Amino acid sequence: MHFFSAMLYVAMACSALTQDYSGSEWYKKSTLSTEEPVEFPGIVLEPGVYTIKLKEIGDRRSVVQILNQDETQVLATLIALPDHRLRPEEGSEFRFHEVRAGPRPIQTWYFPGDLVGLEFVYPKVRARQIAKESSGHVLASKGISDTVIVAVTPNGKEVVVEGRPIETARQKPR
Is 35 exposed, middle or buried (0-12, 13-18, 19+ CB in 10 A)? Predict the structure, then answer.
């Protein structure tokens, strides 16, 4: 009995070593091919082919990298929060904020077969512009290390989605 258990353990260990984890399923990697300029938070990509890769996944926020086609240059490192959809679609899917003119801002990236995707967090100034123009909410923060993420509404109101604003002590006027 011990021999059988040991053989099973060795077989499982060997199969784990021989699995290919470089595929896009494990690392959540997609190719974005665009014929028009598109916008990610902080960067506008000209028409071309780009690689979008999940660098780090967390419970509440994830880090995504935008790379050139051959993955030799990191063009941007972004934060994103989980976003949900009702049906998994074939192929990766990029959803856009609907704006009238200029580069189309990417709102969400869904990976093939997943119900949970990633919604990108824009700088606050740009998020206000997109929200007003698109009549929808846009996630925003002050930067990648900011602990507070808000949803900016079309009327400019900010609703805290993650984190807590830092409260400061107020002095009484003299």
Answer: exposed
Q: Cα 36–98–54 angle (5° rounding)?
A: 70
* Average pLDDT along the chain: 81
Place of tokens 């009238």: 100
pLDDT at 166 over 70: no
Strands 93-96 and 29-34, by their bridges, are: unpaired
User: Can you list the alpha helix ranges (DSSP code H) found in 43-157?
Assistant: 124-134
Per-residue exposure over 40-55, b if at least 16 CB sit within 10 Å of its own CB, e if not: bbbeebeeeebbbbbe
Q: How many CB atoms lie within 10 A of CB 135?
A: 11
Strands (E), 24-133: 29-34, 38-40, 43-45, 48-56, 62-68, 74-84, 93-96, 104-110, 116-120, 122-123
Claim: this prediction has a pTM higher than 0.85? no
HSE at residue 133, side-chain half, CA atoms within 13 A, is 16
- pLDDT, tens digit, for every residue of 133-142? 999 999 999 8
Residue in 155, 54, 154 with CA at minimum distance from that of residue 98: 154
All structural domains of the chain with their residue ranges: 23-121
